[in-house]
Specification:
- This protein folds into two domains: 3-111 and 182-295, 3-Layer(aba) Sandwich (Rossmann fold), CATH 3.40.50; 119-177, Orthogonal Bundle (Histone, subunit A).
- The chain contains 14 helices and six strands.
- It has helices at 15-26, 51-56, 73-90, 101-108, 119-132, 134-144, 146-151, 157-170, 174-177, 198-215, 217-224, 238-245, 251-273, 288-295; strands spanning 3-8, 30-32, 59-60, 93-97, 188-194, 280-282.
- A six-stranded parallel beta sheet has the order 3-2-4-1-5-6, sandwiched between helices.
- Strand 2 (30-32), helix 2 and strand 3 form a beta-alpha-beta unit.
- It is globular and about 55 Å long.
- The relative contact order is 0.17.
Length: 296
């Protein structure tokens, strides 16, 4: 049976190298499930697979979008479901590697049929947010969808604004569109979670940040600084560099904050993964991963 092998885990744990090793042994291609590696021009800040790594195994969805292009988990689900039949013609296995939890869920479970937000609606809602602030948007959401208002993270402006966008675009409460039912998939899914002892993981994260700096992250961030308002750049690494450029923190503080925020993100990922009972956990590079896949 055709099988999608999902390699996921917290940021910095070593997913890319493990996925390449598994894909080579399965004669499979790799689908990147990383919402930032999709974008061109920022390979250092997103820790995208290098040209050498991509030469070892064909990769999909790496560096395919311009920084100002709109993309979403729904777009990813559609694009991957269109790609997979072609990959399965070449091999009974495909490997999906990344740490963007919503993107992985979109392919493994499917996501609700949320309408694509038009540029007009997006501009209008964000203009309201910039003019009136978060409290105003919360008031709007309370009127449009009181049920979602009761559960939304009220400190996360992106989620609040997006919920208002969906209500405005669809003309319905967001809650009515969220059925949260898994869609059947015509292939088997094997989920491999990678993790390390916390101290070791955090040390890897700290060292990876320094390696990104050495590889040219500061210069990369300066190149895209004029576009800092774009959602594609609203991510750990670039946010701290932009704050440094703006004089809001010194260089050493920016690097230290980048390390800290990356560690915080890793903890959020692990909290998310803990809910997934289908995940089988290994350390990166563990030979038992192949045994586990082959015995299923």
């Amino acid at each position: 049976m055709n099988t999608l092998v999902v390699i996921t885990g917290p940021t910095g744990v070593g997913k890319t190298d493990t996925a390449i090793n598994i894909a080579q042994r399965l004669s499979a291609e790799i689908i990147s499930a990383d919402s930032r590696q999709l974008y061109r021009d920022i390979p250092i800040g997103t820790a995208a697979p290098t040209a050498q790594q991509q030469a070892l195994v064909p990769h999909h969805f790496v560096g395919t979008l311009a920084l100002d292009e709109y993309y979403s988990a729904a777009c990813f689900e559609s694009d991957v479901m269109e790609l997979l039949p072609r990959l399965f013609e070449r091999s009974p296995y495909a490997v999906m590697c990344g740490g963007s939890m919503l993107y992985i869920d979109a392919v493994c479970r499917g996501i609700d049929e949320i309408p694509t937000i038009s540029d007009e609606v997006r501009r209008a809602v964000y203009a309201e947010y910039e003019l009136h602030g978060l409290d105003y948007m919360l008031d709007q959401l309370r009127v449009l969808d009181p049920e979602h208002y009761a559960v939304v993270d009220k400190k996360n402006y992106k989620r609040v604004v997006h919920a208002v966008e969906i209500c405005r675009q669809s003309g319905k409460p967001y809650t009515q569109l969220r059925v949260n039912q898994a869609k059947p998939r015509p292939f088997r899914i094997v989920k491999i979670g990678l993790n390390l002892p916390r101290e070791q993981l955090f040390d890897r994260i700290n060292r990876r940040v320094l390696a990104m700096i050495e590889a040219g992250l500061v210069e990369e961030a300066r190149r895209v600084y004029p576009m800092r308002h774009l959602n594609s750049l609203n991510t750990v690494g670039f946010k701290e560099m932009f704050a440094y450029f703006d004089g809001l923190m010194d260089y050493d503080t920016a690097v230290s904050r980048m390390q800290k925020n990356t560690r915080v993100y890793a903890k959020k990922q692990l909290t998310w993964y803990a809910r997934d009972t289908d995940m089988q956990w290994f350390e990166p590079g563990d030979e038992h991963i192949m045994q586990y896949i082959e015995q299923l």
